[in-house]
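Researcher: Please generate the 3D structure of the following complex. Treat every line as part of one assembly.
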Amino acid sequence: MERNTISRIKDFIIEHNTVLIFVVMLVFSASMSDSFFTLNNLSNLIRQIAPIGLMSFGMLLVILIGGIDLSVGSVIAGIGVAFALLSYEVYFPVAFALSLLIGGGIGVITGYLIAYQKVAPFIATLAMMTIVRGLGYLFSKGAPITVGVYSESILNLGSGDVLGVPYVALILVVVFGILYVVLHYNVFGRLLIAIGSNEEAVRLSGVNVRRYKFWVYVIIAVLTALAALIIVSRTGVGTPNIGVGMELDVIAAVVIGGASLSGGKGSLLNTLLGVLILGMIGNIMNLLNITSYLQQLIKGIIIILAVVFQKYQK
Amino acid sequence: MIEVLGVKKSFGGVRALRGVNMEVKAGEIHALLGENGAGKSTLMKIISGAISRDEGVLKIDGDEVYFKNTQAAKEKGIGIIYQEFSLVPELSVAENIFLHQLKNHLFIPWKKLRDNSRKLIAELGFELDVRKKVKDLSIADQQIVEISKALSEEVRLLILDEPSAVLGPAEIHKLFRTLRALQKRGVAIIYISHHLEELFELSDKITVLKDGVSVATVSTGETTKDQLVELMLGRSLNTMFPDRTHLQSAKHREVLFSISGIRVPGSNDPVSLKICSGEIVGVGGLVGSGRTELLRAIFGADPQSFKKVTKRDAILRVESPKAAVRSGIGMVPEDRKQHGGILECSIRENISVANYPKLNKGMGFIRREEENAIVAALKEKLNIKMVALDQALKDLSGGNQQKVILAKWLNTEVELLLIDEPTRGVDVGARAEIYQIIHDLAESGKAILMVSSDWEELLGLPDRVIVMRKGTICGEVLKKDLNEEILLRMAIGEEYK
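Model: Done. Output below.
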């Protein structure tokens, strides 16, 4: 009997490891710093994690179908530069929409290469990563561009709030909600998981697998463009060298959330927890004035923990 | 030496063993007979400590034992040889035989190792160059190394899992000699096989396993083949197939699908065929004769430039599986794990995956109640044994997985169903059910084109059989003229008149 209880506790820990790591982080953060649970800090935390959050949601879809997207960090920079340049030409809503469109265009190219030309996702997105980064440098001539007067109102997006809830938090919640419904109640989401589990069987059931793959890469690119705009809204500049290595943080969040890189397995809620865990590490370290080098170490350890737990899942 | 009493074991909801009794004495060769899925492997895994039993008693020399792992079983003298050998190909024979002792030495005691290996092999009545690498040996010799290895570990009960499957006739003879030598040393042997001839030649006793129950243990000298077959199947062979004789004379059937211009890779002659509504057409031929390629080409799974498909004289464009499904064509692929089922996904999703366009109530949202009703009805109709519709497909037995994949196509408006090896890896009981399902489909006016390597199946179910050789159709036989010899002669290209 006692043995049984122990093994049940063990199963519970293994099954819900993301939640547990999250709770541990939360308790740890709250006990280490009095200012963690202040409204100010929490809304600051949400603002910090929102871009990574949006990208991670997109990355979850990509990873669900067994793909990967290495280009997201570069897209952050490319779209930032694009928006900054547009802000000298057109008003904010137009610049905003055009930036998302350009992001979608990048996704169309990536998706076409992967879905219709059968280029391996790793290679296709690696190429897009350098191409988009290169374009960012070319168009900005290598220097950060301050947002122009026409579109200065983007700064409200970064700092503004409704009844104390930051705009960016609302964006995150809305996107989360839409994707949650899609993954749980929609054919699109169901087929993504099925494709990740056995692409060929799905194809031989008469499903146009390529179309679904294509759209997944478009979605992540648009979400990344949205993330880029949120970053610009906080800094007020489009910077060509921002977001280097960001794709790794995004992938890490998804993996900490329990998704399998071979596809077919992952949860949106756990991905959000993964994002929060990573965000809290950064946040609490800043509050405690601890060097960022240590952050990297702890991030690495948490990734290892998450993956080891997954190994023991049935 | 070993006693198994009332052992039971379940995986998820599937009861693999439902009460097995078996006793093996020292120096006895005891055969274990049963169809695929009867529970032979599960029983052997329990005896060798690879998995634990749910209920029942396992006794060795009269004492009840619980094995935590295979190592614990080994210490009690139980060894098992799987079809896939556990030898290290790059190491020599001698090293392989004494692999378990090598860790005790700092330097390899080559001379002692080789002498002892030679001695062990000689005791079995053979001679091998113990310095040779294992990968350079024939399969039969590798088996001798496996057995010697078991001996070096002081085995008292040796289990062999279908050892003859990988061997030729001469090699089987060699294996039997080895096993008799072991028997003389007082080793108990459990020999798993479903080749009856072998068991009559080799074994002292035979235990028959059916659906997880040990239905009988008989002395080999006092039984007959017929008795064993009946014990094993629980029925005789000719009740497996639904009666279709009343259908075969029906000449008034309309041609439903007409297919032409298909080129199977490696052949220049295009293939064409016609199939009527309500007809079951079998496709025979050797492995590699292009049967699977033919089905895949019809279904649009592989691109074909000159294919022409008509349904009731209307020309169809079937350039992709999606187009095929739209045109009323479905396919059950040969390889269930790779191409047929989505193993990690639920039964519900596997049944619905080809039917989403119909279940869509707009924007990709699914009519849940309708889906549940359809899936539940199909589950009843095909008698799919499962715990819940949300269960992953991989938790089902082969036969039930196959039923799920058939259910997927029953769920669409399929008119031509292509089935590649309908009962591969399916146990006997489910096999008869699947034949009935196929028969019922044809009864309802669908056309069935089924590839099979199982002669019995090809003779028993279809109304006519077309035979393929080297990528083309080399002949066609009606049911009334069918026999195994005709099919074989056509398949290997011998003239038959």
